[in-house]
Amino acid sequence: MHYLLLLHFPPGRGPQEGTPEFDAEMARWGELNRELRDAGVVVGASGLHVDATTTVRTRDGEPVVTDGPYAETTELLFSFYVLDVEDLDAATAWAAKMPAAEYGSIEVRPMVHYEFR
Amino acid sequence: MSAPLDLDGIFRAERPAVLAVIARRLDGDLALAEDVVQEALLAATVEWGRRGLPDAPGAWLTTVAWNRALDRLRRERTARIHAPSLLPPRESYELETTFERPAVEDDQLAMLFACCHPALAARTRLALTLRSVAGLTVAEIARLLLVSEAALERSLVRARRKIRDARIPFRVPPDELLPERLAGVLRVVYLLFTAGHDSARDASGIRADACEEAIRLARLVARLMPDMAEAHGLLALLLLTDARRPARLDADGELVSLERQDRGRWDAEQIAAGDAALATALRLRPHGAYTVQAAIAATHARAARFEQTDWGEIAALYGRLHELEPTPVVALNRAVAIGMADGPGAGLALLDELAADARLDGFAALHAARAELLLRAGEREAAATAAAAAIAASGSEAERRALARRFDA
User: Fold this and answer.
1) I need a labelling partner for B361 at 20 to 30 A (CA). Which of A65, A87, B11, B318 fits?
2) What is the pTM of this model?
């Protein structure tokens, strides 16, 4: 079963870059990512630029490309994981290990399964 | 000529077990299980009406429901062959159906944990447990929870789909999750009991059903998880509280206070069963709030007359409960118990301290407790004033009437 984990954090919360707390958190992320890899559950994952989003809508057959949506100031989507695990308990257990869960939030979305050939 | 079949009664008794077996076999797809069990009940209405009751109605319903489920899955699979981009979610199912009691009970316990999963909203957990595990009808649950049938049906449908789509596990959780999840299950069972117990009037019998169903579930959890102290503690609490039900209301349906209840009408057999469950809980660790509340109820049950109540013991138990659950309501009950044990003055002093707590501002029970202790101290006028404040603050008509009777206010 595949789950999309969407990681959000409120700007200004959590350790700030350049502090020892930030370095400590990075070390935790590194450890967690190794653990995820060893468990063989990661289908895909990446950090996201938080304020460089582009939106495409096709209207009357013409693609319309616009800037945004602009990042919400309350909670920024900054990363995602796609995990292949047994059930919701397994997915939320991984989410709970992520440092961002302590000052932000992690949305766990079950994925509808399509096969691409 | 055979007696007419009590189909409703049989369905009510068999439905939860059949649903649990089918849903577990369908890997937790409670939405599909619910549909096919409903179809099996309809088929039974026709078949049993014609041929009479089968030897094992539960097994009959399970087989029919399971065959319907397989039909449905086969059709869906055929549809998918024509839409090859959509993968079938599951490859195979076990084909045998068993309907043996221990296995069925395991399935019911698994269903209970799925229905009480924290990924479902708290209100939905209770409604879903009432429907799927306790087998109440949507109409009954709507009346019990004071919601419309349409709104309830919508939230049940959504919850079943979420269990299927998010793959909420249909099992007893592993050890590392068990304490937290069991607490969630016990909470729902407790709420089910209070939903039945908290109402003064019982015209329909639904509320008594809710109490009995809560006790049945508490018994199931305690039997299948014999090492969990709080499971036995909750069972004891429910049995001991429910034992007083025959004396709780007078002939007019008015609430009767503990002091004035006819203790001869308390259910002695149920008190004995509650005491036994409490003894089991006390042998185990750790003791939680249910076990301590059961010990309080047991202390009340031991007193043949109100005057023989061991208030010292009850005050000590409320002290212990306050360590576990430091809420103003527990503090209030402790103050009353101390007032009963050591004299009204000691209790009133504690109540004065509590009155400074903003959370108890306008709290009817605080004024009622003051009125009670003032009356026992012989201060009739002050008691009447406190009683009037309690009546003004109370949100319950039954409680207002009971206070007015007690204090002639």
Assistant:
1) B318
2) 0.83
